[in-house]
Design a protein that fits this description.
The chain is built from 16 helices and 19 strands. By secondary structure, the protein is α+β, with helices and mostly antiparallel strands. The protein folds into four domains: 87 residues, Uridine Diphospho-n-acetylenolpyruvylglucosamine Reductase, domain 2 (2-Layer Sandwich), CATH 3.30.43.10; 111 residues, Uridine Diphospho-n-acetylenolpyruvylglucosamine Reductase, domain 3 (2-Layer Sandwich); 204 residues, Vanillyl-alcohol Oxidase, Chain A, domain 3; 40 residues, no CATH class. Strands 12, 13, 14, 15, 16, 17, 18 and 19 form an eight-stranded antiparallel beta sheet that branches. The chain has a five-stranded antiparallel beta sheet with strand order 5-6-10-8-9. Helix 8 crosses helix 11. It binds flavin-adenine dinucleotide. Flavin-adenine dinucleotide binds next to strand 3, helix 5 and strand 10.
Length: 480
């Protein structure tokens, strides 16, 4: 680990005397490096905790002036280690988590370091919810600036579709606003590739009126997959967002065998929900935790995962889902966890949010490049021993390629609409394999590169996706 010169640290402390700073010899330093997956942690040279936009701007300028590698930490859930730096300066936004609600416009203003659970808890006091992550510990910044799928996606699209304005610290340390009327090109890029362009210190989202919802897990044996998939296809056909579900194959704590967990969501009364989900209840679930709850009560989906090692990748699963293909993935999953017992906590999850809200926008309306009539498949291999990493990586790669091949095949054989035709078939926020940026951003890539050269020509923000083509990166490195 390259150490940051003591003199540089002292200079920073005198520039920002009230700033909380951790160095490798500080008591809380190790804790500050923790991420949701241990293999994405790196030993920062210094970890700093700004409390204001001005602090963030000063830190970015300081980092540039002193040639420090910069990482920005929101909720620490990046699959690729994008919020960690080996020897550089980690700007941890955890002291910037304020949330406020304007009940007139229903605008929700969130500081860049907030986590989704805190946001939902703050907004539900006003009977308001917004499109955001399902896991409460996920950071707003990291998820909402790259996409942001949640229970309200079916009705209102992605978190990026609901960003009204953002306050951004750019690579040169300047503070700018981005909205449809202020820096509209940056506003376009920030909604899908935000972390590649700057640090959002504050984001204004459109919120929506929200009451209690019905939500929970229904558990089935793997043999129920085809019947469950049939119901999911029905849901995807008829729902405009009032109902949604996530289907997961995995091993539950305390269970000897893998199971199917269907996390269900219904925006309405329990009796209406049970009527809608009756076909699933007819399959006689082995477990049922569904009940009415507040919107903030729906967060989960990974909150209680024990810290461990993990490899993540994703793909798109075309609607209607082909149960033969799903069965073949289930077979792959069962074979893998049998072959690699250390990876028994591996999961495959299908986010079958209705596509209605996502398709209200064109593929090029924001930088987000993955709209279409399909859901995400998340392939998450979790393990405990470092020596299992290679097997997990290889399996994730093989599963990724298999899912992508099927996605491309379905695009060709189905008569897909114009939006789906241009979709990349992968949610960037689930890419732990470091895919090529051009493939990840598809039709929006060229425009992003042009804007990147305007807003961050030195490629300071290179960790989420390293946007610049390899040849441009070589030039930047020479300049540095
Ligand atoms: C258990 C689990 C559940 C998940 N559930 C969902 C879900 O329901 N919906 C969904 O859409 N995604 C979900 N994700 C994926 C999630 O969106 C990504 O992992 C995302 O990167 C997490 O953001 P973070 O802030 O927590 O992570 P971090 O690792 O802190 O940051 C990720 C990237 O965002 C950048 N960043 C963070 N904050 C800011 C900011 N304010 N300004 C600029 N850049 C910033 C970081 O620099 C880094 O490049 C989930 C992931 C996990 C592990």
């Amino acid at each position: 680990m390259p150490l940051i010169d003591r003199a540089v640290i002292e200079k920073l402390k005198s520039t920002l005397p009230n700033l909380h700073v951790l160095t490798p010899d500080s008591v809380d330093y190790k804790k500050s490096l923790e991420r949701s997956m241990r293999n994405t942690e790196k030993p920062a040279g210094i970890v700093v905790f700004p409390t204001s936009t001005k602090d963030v701007a000063s830190l970015v300028s300081f980092g540039q002036d002193n040639s420090l590698d910069i990482a920005v930490r929101g909720g620490g859930h990046s699959a690729s280690g994008a919020s960690s730096t080996d020897g550089g300066m980690c700007i941890d936004l955890c002291k910037m988590q304020a949330v406020s609600v304007d009940t007139g416009t229903m605008h929700v203003t969130v500081q860049g370091g907030a986590l989704w659970r805190d946001v939902y808890l703050a907004t539900e006091r006003f009977g308001v919810a917004l499109v955001g992550g399902i896991c409460g510990n996920v950071g707003v910044g990291g998820s909402a600036l790259v996409g942001g799928y949640g229970w309200l996606t079916g009705a209102h699209g992605l978190a990026v579709d609901n960003i009204v304005e953002a306050e951004i610290v750019l690579a040169d340390g300047s503070i700018v606003a981005a909205s449809s009327s202020k820096n509209p090109d940056l506003y376009w890029a920030f909604r899908g590739a935000g972390p590649c362009f700057g640090i959002a210190t504050s984001i204004v989202f459109q919120g929506y009126k929200q009451g209690f919802v019905w939500h929970g897990d229904l558990i089935f044996p793997p043999s129920a997959l085809t019947a469950v998939a049939e119901f999911m296809n029905y849901l995807l056909r008829v729902s405009k967002g009032e109902s949604s579900a996530i289907l997961m194959m995995g091993m539950l704590p305390g269970m000897a065998d893998p199971a199917l967990v269907v996390q269900v969501y219904y925006d309405g009364t329990e009796s209406k929900a049970k009527e809608f989900f009756a076909p699933l209840f007819k399959l006689r679930p082995m477990g049922d935790s569904t009940k009415m709850k507040s919107f903030a009560g729906t967060t989960g989906g990974g909150d209680d995962l024990p810290p461990g090692l993990g490899e993540v990748t994703s793909g798109g699963i075309m609607v209607p889902m082909d149960s033969v293909f799903l069965e073949s993935l289930l077979k792959d999953y069962l074979a893998f966890v049998k072959l690699v017992p250390d990876a028994s906590e591996t999961i495959i999850a299908y986010e079958t949010h209705p596509t209605y809200g996502i398709l209200l926008h064109a593929q090029t309306e924001t930088a987000f490049p993955n709209r279409g009539t399909f859901g995400n498949v998340i392939i998450s291999a979790r393990y405990t021993k470092e020596e299992t990493a290679v097997a997990c990586k290889e399996w994730c790669r093989a599963m990724h390629d298999k899912v992508h091949k099927e996605f491309v095949r379905r695009k060709m054989v189905d008569n897909v609409d114009e939006v789906t035709k241009t979709a990349v078939g992968e949610y960037i926020n689930y890419d732990g394999l470091g895919e090529n940026p051009e493939r990840l951003y598809g039709v929006n890539y060229k425009k992003l590169v042009i804007l990147k050269k305007i807003y961050d020509p030195q490629n300071v923000f290179n960790k989420c996706v390293d946007l610049l083509p390899r040849s441009d990166n070589a030039v930047v490195q020479q300049m540095n």
